[in-house]
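Researcher: Please predict.
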Amino acid sequence: SVWAITCFVVRTEHRSKGIASKLLDAAVEHARAHGARVVEGYPLDTEIKRFSSNELYHGTLSAFLGAGFTETARPGAARP
């Protein structure tokens, strides 16, 4: 009953258009429709550190927070 959203793939020419946020919303909807009790993710906090677009496949913390997620843990300074 615990589902995880692990990555997003958006072609370079389509980035920065909100597509990852729409994918996140759809993933949560799909998980819930199939019995997920908890949906977790592992986004990166771009307010703490700047990441290359290749590193952001996990998604951004702001997108997850905007979708209603709650931050419950932060692994540490090496991986903000």
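Model: The chain has one domain: 2-66.
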